[in-house]
Amino acid sequence: MTFLAPHNMPFAAALVIMAILAVVQLIGIADFGDADVDMDAGGDGIPEAGMLDGLLTLLGIGRVPLTIWLALFLFLFAAIGISIQELAQGMTGTPLYSWLAALIAGGAALPVTGTFARPLGRILPQDHTTAVSTDSLVGRRATISIGVARIASPARARVKDAHGQTHRVMVEPHEAASEFHEGDEVLLVRREGNTFYATALAERRLSPTVN
Fold it and tell me: Do 168 and 154 form a contact (C-beta atoms < 8 A)?
């Protein structure tokens, strides 16, 4: 069976995307490998929040950086899909339709990815956490890591929570006339949605909170 045959194209494409993710991470084009999942979105005591938390835990999302989870899923999707096509070819003499094989492989790869991601998350170096509320990052120091932060044009920043674990957040200046560049240290003073607003530490007259 040819790897690049039409019935295997979804799985070949998955491996290509996985390779692109690996290259992107290696050369540092993007900084989306350490996404945090805010488990507080549903509010306390809401059944949907608990169900979502359980589903994410089952799938292993939040246990490892997002890029690693996605690469693992794509690899397993491709491996399972090609195996399905090989099995179908051997049993019936012809492979399944590509979309049908992809549907079966995708459904099978999700729980398998979770099975691998959970123990993997325990041995990988951790620089993110889902154990704290995103709001708890307000009042902490952050460092601009990618881009220039201006009003209505946030930049990526790194901030450590109370446990010393690193989060990546989007930051805009609190003062309209300010802007922050890569390497600048800022203090997160408030949050609106997924964006934090900050002041430059050099401009503050009061001592910032201890990191």
Answer: no
Amino acid at 6: P
β-pair type (155-160, 166-173): antiparallel
Of 192, 193, 210, the C-alpha closest to 201 is 210
Residues in Cβ contact with 2 at an 8 Å cutoff, skipping those fewer than 6 apart: 8
**Helix (H/G/I), strand (E/B), else coil: 33:** coil
pLDDT of residue 7: 87
Query: Is pLDDT above 50 for 90?
Result: yes
Distance CA 25, CA 49 (A): 31
Contact call for residues 159 and 187 (beta carbons, < 8 A): no
Q: Which two tokens stand for residue 199?
A: 């002041």
Secondary structure percentages of the chain, helix, strand, coil, to 5: 45, 20, 35
Cα torsion 176, 178, 182, 186: sign: negative
More confident: 23 or 100: 100
pTM score, whole prediction: 0.49
CB distance 40 to 34 below 8 Å: no
User: Alpha-carbon distance 140 to 160, whole Å?
Assistant: 8
